[in-house]
Design brief:
The chain is α+β, with helices and mostly antiparallel strands and about 600 residues long. It has 14 helices and 32 strands. The strands form seven sheets. It has a nine-stranded parallel beta sheet with strand order 22-21-20-17-13-12-11-24-23. Strand 23, helix 11 and strand 24 form a beta-alpha-beta unit. The chain starts with 12 loop residues before the first helix and ends with a strand. Bound molecules: alpha-D-glucopyranose (GLC). Alpha-D-glucopyranose binds near residues 190, 217 and 218.
Amino acid sequence: MHLFYYRGENDLEISSGILTGLLSYKDESRNRDMVGEGTGIFDLNGRKISCEQNGDRIIIRINLNENDNIYGLGEAPIRMRRNRTKFSTITSTSWDYNDLRDTIYSAFPVFLMANTSKCTGVFVNTFGKCDFDFGTEEYDRVKITASVKNLEFYIHEGKTPEDILEWYTSLTGKPFEIPEWALGHQISRWSYFPRGSVEDVVRNYRKEFPISAVYLDIDYMDGYRIFTVDSRKFPDMKGMVSEMRSIGVEVIPIIDPGVKVDQNYEIFREFIGDYIEDKESSIYTDYVWPGEVAFPDFIRENAREKWSEMMEKFLENGFRGIWLDMNEPSTRKDSRYGSRGGNMDPEAIHIMDNGTKIEDSQVHNLFPYFQCMATYEAMRKKVEKPFILTRSAYAGCQKYAAIWTGDNKASYEDLKTQLSMVLNLGLSGMPYTGCDLGGFWGETDSELLCRYYEMAVLFPLYRNHKIKAGNDQELYRLPSFYRERLKMAIETRYHFMDQLINSAREAHLHGHPMVRPLFYNFPQDEDTFMIDDQYMLGRKILVAPQIHESVRERDLYLPEGKWVSYPGNVEIEGKQWISSDLRIPLFVRRS
Ligand code: GLC
């Protein structure tokens, strides 16, 4: 193993404290594997890496080989292969993300450079904004510019992408163990309420379709005050959760991070002293669903402990899953982090446990990380196998949460994008991923809804979700032709449930993505690197979804081996392109 590690001159107190907590990396191996430290030029098996400090910026350049294929950096709504693109990693709100060419919601400063003979992984542990340029500014180099005062840089060379994911997750932590029910078909809407309506929807679904969870969006709360329940809509939440469980359905409530500023609200009062502040040392406030809100400063142990306590209390309702949303954190006031919607003022102030004050721009990405951590810690005390679904995350969040691709659209363009986002999330260490089936924004017609269910048939998470002002897309409402197709898709998923469970186990133990692009399993096969409209669950199952509007037949690639189609059991020799007009072209590798 080779490692190049850099920590800047102006080491802040924060480095050791946070990094030790954040990474599971051991100090001895760090020293043993280090090939260089500080600024200068380094060599990793012939690959040149340079590092310079330029004012408040750290610039790292890595030489690219002509045949390197770059992937990773979490979710960006564009093609999967990252060559000739540039991105910033900063956790940020991303309304209407289809027009963006940047990473969204989360920050995963980790990428792979793969070719047929080797795979190199890079992880830039930086909690502020970091810019990645993959050969647009300098054709034969990756250029990384971090507007922070200190960072850690890791690079590791392995034979295969699998080696890199194992290395990266040994550095940042192995994924949590996802409960099996979370791999089932889940339903959601902004918002199902009151209790009677939730029960009606669940009852209607279950006449024809299996479901394993129903989500409660923001309207279950009392005036959007987190950790409260509107008792007019849900007079007996505990009773409802337990009744749902008795029929095999978990209830998952949403929790946002913003706490309504309201002196009469206990939760608001509890966090006083542990909120993010402004430059004048007052509580920093912004605007989200409840109106004016303040944000617990999750970097502080005290804030995390309080959050965990509140969460534990809230879990007494019987919840086994929690949905963490808007945790970039998302706001309505400021958009100085760019055009991606509202984000917190970068000059807002965090006060570290030791009293050091630090601007949000330096530690911004840690907000979702520590919120997930505090939530997970609370859940572990109450629930055997907790499940957290988060919208925002930072590298390492795989230890605590699953992630979905946020507010996608009811469009064919977004349908394809979801696939590349899910694949790159997996390559960035997040194995439990999914998207809003049908598309969150806009109107989904029955055909598009089927295409979503068919494309995502073996995605780790399988959840239908929709915005308030959008069509009703509960499957049982559809005309029979489409209901039959949806039943087929869901039956196919449940047919492969054992394989889903096995790959979840593999993810938990080794950090491998549950669903991967073809090159992950066949890195010696040059043909696989550009394919981003097919995926594999584990090593054996390949799906080549029909994702183009009005097109029923597609070309697809089967790598070497013997494959059999499902259903139908037709045997096909691999290492060739074939065409298929099946609704869900799916193949299982025999050898
Ligand atoms: C955000 C979430 C979405 C949720 C909505 C209301 O837009 O991404 O899933 O339904 O907020 O809570």
